[in-house]
Amino acid sequence: NDRPVLYARLFKLLFNSVQNQGGDRDDVEADGILKPHLQRIVNQSMVLAQTAKDPAPYFTLLRLLFRAIGSTSTKYDEMYSEFLPLLPSLLQSLNRLQSGVHTQQMKDIFIELCLTVPVRLSNLLPYLPALMDPLVSALNGAGSNTLIAQGLRTLELCIDNLQPNFFYDKIEPVRAELIQSLWQTLQNSSENDNNAKTAFRVLGKCGARNRKTLQDAPKLEYVHPDAT
Fold first, then answer.
1. What are the backbone dihedrals phi and psi of residue 47, each rounded to the nearest 5 degrees, phi first?
2. What pLDDT is stored for residue 112 in this prediction?
3. Which element (helix H / strand E) includes 190?
4. Is residue 138 within 8 Å of residue 115, measured between CB atoms?
5. pLDDT-derived band of residue 14, with 50, 70 and 90 as boundaries?
């Protein structure tokens, strides 16, 4: 059955038209075609993925959608508003999925979806706690360098635009893990590693807070003598 493949190609063409075009009338047309269907696309993808034998195509579709809208200019702000009613249930579902038993490839998709929901940062403020686990997972480097870069961009965006006391209060439950993952990124870096440069810059913006982890008890993994 070639119908799913055809649908996927059509969606990709539509998303690319939103992502790649400039500021002309065609953009408005692409925006107008996609906007009325955004909520249905997201909701149906999440519902159908629960019962599909292979849910990957549905989540890949959402990833393409989020990347297309998230990379556009501010003239697509009205499209962002379509996601606001979906935020609570969407973040809750994606968090549950990324903490479940899945392949690393699927977990990477769930984490990216959590960090790239196309809404303004101001709209995410009530849901910041729901982003903490995906952010830690992204920075821990279990996935690709691209995912680490996305985690670093998200963290730096928050540091640059939120009041320090507010933001650091929100990340306190995972503060140690976040800072340790930044140091780990530096430790595992190679020459001309952009992620390492960003991690170093973020640590600098954290100021004295990045040294509080020195007072925390280290997390050690027990290795049974028979395993050595």
1. -70, -50
2. 92
3. none
4. yes
5. confident
